[in-house]
């Protein structure tokens, strides 16, 4: 594995093992599972997973202090604040407190801005996973019409920017979009990131469209009704087993990149 070899090279060069710190506030069951999966991925590539667990009633100020503590730790090469955090916390303020050099999930607004402008920056892991899958399978992006359903700061907006930088014609659809089905029907590439199970219907999909499902909902289903949509598609990502595992891989990749610069 390439990443494992790169981590071994870092260890041989400086005698230090890269650390990815994951901060979990509260005990959301899905978040607990995601953090565990990321910890397992760290182990597979030879890095240390530092799990920081904080109470559900943690304040923004307490979380900011913890982030600053991790920013100052030299062996910590990546900091991941597990989303979502409890409602009393100013999530974006905490994202923005993560050092750019350690923002391996691309959640700092400065990271987003640099990424959107095509400048070097760590990128949001799930959007990067979607782009990587498209490129890996040789799916043409340039000149194609892409419709992203969902406008979240960590998924919809960054994947729109990434696809725009690859010369796609990009539309972002959302809860206020008029005639959503007609908008989606134009798409050569559909990215579903709306968080509603089986939301995208077969009659919204044009023949030969590429379906990228970034959703994960109860019952192990995504945001696209794949059972009915797949026959119309030319390629698709299953749920589970599609975008999710590649997201974790992108997080590991960016953490190794950070370690190579910091250690």
UniProtKB/TrEMBL annotation:
Residues 2-105 form the Tetrahydrofolate dehydrogenase/cyclohydrolase catalytic domain. GO terms for cellular component: cytosol. NADP(+) binds at residues 150-152. Pathway: One-carbon metabolism; tetrahydrofolate interconversion. GO terms for biological process: L-histidine biosynthetic process; methionine biosynthetic process; purine nucleotide biosynthetic process; tetrahydrofolate interconversion. The keyword Hydrolase applies. InterPro entries: Aminoacid_DH-like_N_sf, NAD(P)-bd_dom_sf, THF_DH/CycHdrlase, THF_DH/CycHdrlase_cat_dom, THF_DH/CycHdrlase_NAD-bd_dom. Homodimer. Belongs to the tetrahydrofolate dehydrogenase/cyclohydrolase family. This is Bifunctional protein FolD. It comes from Lachnotalea glycerini. The gene is folD.
């Amino acid at each position: 594995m390439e990443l494992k070899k790169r981590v071994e090279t870092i260890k041989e060069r400086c005698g230090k093992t890269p650390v990815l710190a994951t901060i979990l506030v509260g005990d959301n069951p899905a978040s607990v599972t995601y953090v565990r999966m990321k910890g397992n991925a760290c182990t597979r590539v030879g890095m240390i997973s530092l799990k920081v667990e904080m109470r559900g009633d943690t304040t923004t100020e307490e979380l900011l202090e913890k982030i600053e503590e991790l920013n100052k730790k030299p062996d910590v090469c990546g900091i991941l604040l597990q989303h979502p955090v409890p409602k009393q916390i100013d999530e974006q303020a905490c994202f923005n407190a993560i050092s750019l050099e350690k923002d391996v999930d691309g959640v700092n607004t400065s990271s987003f801005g640099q990424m959107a402008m095509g400048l070097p920056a760590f990128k949001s892991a799930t959007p990067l996973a979607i782009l990587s899958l498209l490129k890996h399978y040789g799916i043409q992006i340039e000149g194609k019409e892409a419709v992203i359903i969902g406008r979240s700061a960590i998924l919809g907006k960054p994947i729109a920017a990434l696809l725009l930088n690859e010369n796609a014609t990009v539309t972002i659809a959302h809860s206020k979009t008029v005639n959503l089905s007609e908008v989606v029907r134009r798409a050569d590439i559909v990215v579903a990131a709306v968080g509603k199970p089986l939301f995208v219907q077969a009659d919204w999909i044009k023949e030969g469209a590429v379906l990228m499902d970034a959703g994960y909902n109860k019952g192990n289903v995504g945001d696209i009704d794949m059972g009915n949509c797949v026959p119309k598609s030319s390629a698709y990502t299953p749920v589970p087993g599609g975008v999710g595992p590649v997201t974790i891989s992108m997080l590991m990749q960016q953490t190794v990149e950070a370690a190579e610069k910091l250690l």
